[in-house]
Each structure stands twice: as structure tokens, then as C-alpha cells.
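Q: Given only this backbone (104 positions), what sequence would you predict?
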């Protein structure tokens, strides 16, 4: 058998002394934090609600886009009333015709 080195003896003694300082009270779990914190349950709940809302929106879009089938054609929108177009009047006066000299 091998003899232990002095450094190993010292390490074992130090670890044994530290182990004797810890009691069962030191090993009990700590109290959970108080206050409003975002835990994994709350994050999962928010993600599930967001996923459900996204799925509902996608289903609504697919339903609305697929409702234009040959069996049920979408009604055509009513015709728009067209307003008569007004042509702008010219603000430049017409030139006055020059008198034509008549030949006798």
C-alpha cells in the first residue's frame, strides 16, 4: 500500500472539517422569491395564448380567402357613380378677326 502524501492528508483534514460545519438546517431549500416575477409557467401561458391567437387569425384568413368558390361566387360590388368631367374654359380671349377689305 502506498502512503499518503502530506498535501493529501492536509486536504482531507480540511474537507472533513468543512463537512462538519454544515448541518441539516443549512441544506434546507430556500424560500421562493416574493413579488411579481416572470416564471416559466407564466411565459409558457403567454406563448400558448399568442400561438392560439395566431392560429385563429390564420384560420380566419384561410376561411375568408377560400370562400370565393364556384359554388358560391362572391357578389360583384355595385357600380360607382361617375361624375361628369368638367372641361376647363379658356381664359384667353379669342383674337378679334381683322376686317377683310372688299374689292369693288
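A: Predicted residues:
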Amino acid at each position: 500500500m502506498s502512503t499518503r502524501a502530506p498535501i493529501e492528508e492536509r486536504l482531507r483534514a480540511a474537507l472533513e472539517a468543512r463537512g462538519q460545519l454544515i448541518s441539516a438546517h443549512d441544506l434546507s431549500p430556500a424560500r421562493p422569491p416574493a413579488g411579481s416575477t416572470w416564471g416559466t409557467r407564466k411565459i409558457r401561458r403567454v406563448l400558448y395564448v399568442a400561438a392560439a391567437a395566431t392560429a385563429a387569425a390564420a384560420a380566419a384568413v384561410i376561411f375568408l380567402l377560400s370562400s370565393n368558390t364556384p359554388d358560391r361566387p362572391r357578389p360583384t360590388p355595385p357600380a360607382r357613380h361617375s361624375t361628369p368631367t368638367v372641361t376647363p374654359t379658356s381664359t384667353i380671349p379669342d383674337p378679334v378677326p381683322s376686317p377683310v377689305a372688299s374689292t369693288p
